[in-house]
Amino acid sequence: MNQVSPLVTAEVIAVGSELLGSTRVDTNSLFLADRLASLGIELRGKSVVGDDRQRLADVFRAALSRADLVVLTGGLGPTDDDLTREVVAETLGLALREDPAIVAEIEDRFAARGLRMPQVNRRQGMVPRGASVLANPRGTAPGLSIDYEGRVVVLLPGPPREMQPMFDALCAGALAARVGDSRIHKETLFVAGRGESHVEEIAQPIYSRWAAEIPPIETTILAVPGQVELHLTLRAGASDEAAIRVRAAQAELVGALGEDVFSTDGRSMEEVVGGLLRERGLTIAAAESCTGGLLMSRLTDVAGSSDYVLGGAVAYSNALKTTLAGVPPPLIEAHGAVSEPVAIALADGVRERTGASLAIGITGIAGPGGGTPEKPVGTVVIALSGSEVPPRVRTCSFFGGRPQVKFQATQAALDMVRRALIFAR
Amino acid sequence: MNQVSPLVTAEVIAVGSELLGSTRVDTNSLFLADRLASLGIELRGKSVVGDDRQRLADVFRAALSRADLVVLTGGLGPTDDDLTREVVAETLGLALREDPAIVAEIEDRFAARGLRMPQVNRRQGMVPRGASVLANPRGTAPGLSIDYEGRVVVLLPGPPREMQPMFDALCAGALAARVGDSRIHKETLFVAGRGESHVEEIAQPIYSRWAAEIPPIETTILAVPGQVELHLTLRAGASDEAAIRVRAAQAELVGALGEDVFSTDGRSMEEVVGGLLRERGLTIAAAESCTGGLLMSRLTDVAGSSDYVLGGAVAYSNALKTTLAGVPPPLIEAHGAVSEPVAIALADGVRERTGASLAIGITGIAGPGGGTPEKPVGTVVIALSGSEVPPRVRTCSFFGGRPQVKFQATQAALDMVRRALIFAR
Predict the structure, then answer these.
(1) Does residue A5 sit at the B interface (CB-CB below 8 Å)?
(2) Domains observed in chain B
(3) Does any CB of chain A come closer than 8 Å to the CB of residue B323?
(4) Which of B18, B231, B353 sits opposite A220 (nearest CB)?
């Protein structure tokens, strides 16, 4: 039996030539960093390697010499490119043998869809001697966990939805048993409707005090499209006191930032708004022009959203603003399609036709064409109509390319619903 | 003078502890990969290292042993955390000396804002013996380029807006003079409607021949939601012949994979479908249930899509299927909302109401709830109605979570439009 020493440091290796091009980044390591932190394991380095046997062996060997835990993602597929399993087994000097149970499971997966398993998939049933197999209910490639001279090597598939539950199961099981007493306590706050520097101006005088305490609470500010995030981190023993200290710090920031804080538990804006609608027994509809359906798509990304999302209209052309949402053509002629009266008419019209308790109307110029000096690209008008809330309308101006403008417009619309439901009583 | 051999391979090292957390990825390497490829230099590996002297030295030494060019980003700031300059100089055995011209420039930058330069900023004026200084018009940290035993080491600041123009200047100047005649010729094929293993079965016998040629064409297969991608790469002289060889190889795969190939120029499915609609002067509308507007949102992600996207209905509730798309309630009662007759009625109804040349109807079960033994989660029915194309309807079965089911359904719907426009004449 191996000597059991706690796992303190980790390295992550993402495998795949596609991750070395100019279009794709490895995002799996963000999830892994989060989960490792919650076990108190510190991620010390990340690497990306192409589908290249020699280089993968080299990078893997170096990581293993430095870290207690090495997690590799990708390269477990059925094709000739997929080298992770073989390179790890070879580097550790472990023979590979086919596990008939895995092959049978993969055959069943194909059979369930009326397909024959291609022969190449047999590769995915190869297991290094002594490795534990990690079940993959969401794909054909099982993961592998290998104890090697007191260290641990974990092989995970590349697709996030297969990788994530597999690693969560491993964290709860075998890895939890191997970590020390230290934990990383984290809390977050998400803020909407305020820029990064304004959040920093309010937050910095507060969190700078915590950085001097022992052990310190570290605070990072991160601006992503449509929201500013504050992340608080405290490394300490797995005590209630430490968890309470970080939550108290979070509460102090919430007090200072007020109603701009929309989430303190990591939930997205669409989840927060969905939760409020469900709580209050309300339904929602939308008439979207420049956002082209993105607002309703985001609302319906939330499981169970059919309880409160009725639907609505995508009125991209002016004619459909009339046909689907009842906007009078003279209103469009008088004010232009991108105007407050038209946004209000879209919201009122779709609410009337759908019978929703609340409705959003959005009209704007997503770009790159269509801007004018008075209404430049990025101009978006958002209106809210509802029996339970006072009507609102707002003309916004967003920066960025077409997808950024669309996203920020939907974020501002959802935030308008949130504020109306919470603060307009 | 060093012996001049062409630079063929590169590695990138991003330095900074903030890149090892759960929120930030290194995106500088995407820009660098693009610029390197256009010089014919192949990016073979990427690493992220925290602000840790020993580990940075270790990773840098390993990269230098493998690659002709090592580019480091970040860690050039004025604080104690910023170790890149010192670690590189020490590893290469080059003494650091202060360059008074750089210090004077930094002092001027501060003075222009009415400020005195903090003493810590002197660090940014330290230059390893023999290094070339790369001007930074957008910040205080200059970059550095070092010739070392026939290889090149480049140090760049972390902020993209400082790093990018600096690297572009270097590519146009010193690096251009150091690359060989070799270029990287790339072509891609995107395939829809077929799984990775089935694409591999058809493609592998073809591309395996090219791997044996000199110089070889390398082929990578990549499965992402809704599509399988084949990437062909040939490293050869900057000749027309090489470019023609890769395009001929691409054409051979297109011949074998037939109408499942939807893109040979990197365009997304929504761009391809948009292009076909525009070419033929047609318009499109949709009535979406389970996809919640995602189909129309994807179509309108393309600049200029207002020329052919009219809009449509998001008919999430059954009542709206009737109100917005004219689906007769008895049809829903008889067949259920997720059925071929209802999908057809959605497509026909929204086409009639919008006057579009083509319309899509989508109804399905995105999950996680709502599945039954006969219609499990992932069942989606897609119908196409059009004056110019024969009507189509298809019941699909998708794997994955809610967002994956939604995305794959929109991909299949767009692919149905594409096939109808290309092959149904």
Answers:
(1) no
(2) 9-178 (3.40.980.10), 182-263 (3.30.70.2860), 269-423 (3.90.950.20)
(3) yes
(4) B18
Helix intervals (H) in B147-219: 160-170, 176-178, 196-211
Mode of pairing for the β-strands spanning A227-237 and A217-224: antiparallel
Under 8 Å between Cβ of A277 and A308: yes
Q: Is A268 on the interface with B (CB under 8 A)?
A: no
What's the pLDDT score for residue A220?
80
SS3 content of chain B, % helix, strand, coil (to 5): 45, 25, 30
Least Cα separation, residue B297 to chain A (angstroms): 5
Residue of A nearest to B266 (CA): A23
What is the mean pLDDT of the segment spanning A395-424? 91
**Interchain contact A265–B (C-beta under 8 A):** no
Residue B35 to residue B172: CA distance in whole angstroms: 10
d(CA A273, CA A255) in angstroms, rounded, equals 21
| ipTM (interface predicted TM) | 0.81
Cα angle, residue A167 at apex, residues A166 and A172 outer, rounded to 5°? 105
Q: Is the pLDDT of residue B32 over 90?
A: yes
pTM of the predicted protein model = 0.82
Residues on chain B touching A79 (C-beta within 8 angstroms): 196-197, 200, 204, 221
Alpha helix stretches (DSSP H) within B171-237: 176-178, 196-211
Nearest CB among B55, B229, B403 relative to A44 is that of B55
Does residue A308 or residue A228 have the better pLDDT?
A308
Q: SS3 of A66, please?
A: helix
A43 — contact with chain B (CB < 8 Å)? yes
pLDDT band at B338 (very low <50, low <70, confident <90, very high): very high
- Residue in chain B lying closest to A220 (CA): B18
Average pLDDT over residues B275-283: 96
Residue A136 has a pLDDT of: 92
Q: Is B191 exposed, middle or buried (0-12, 13-18, 19+ CB in 10 A)?
A: buried
Q: Which residues from B are below 8 Å from A43, CB to CB?
A: 20
Output the DSSP codes for A174-209. Answer: IIGGGB-SEEEEEEEEEE-SS-HHHHHHHHHHHHHH
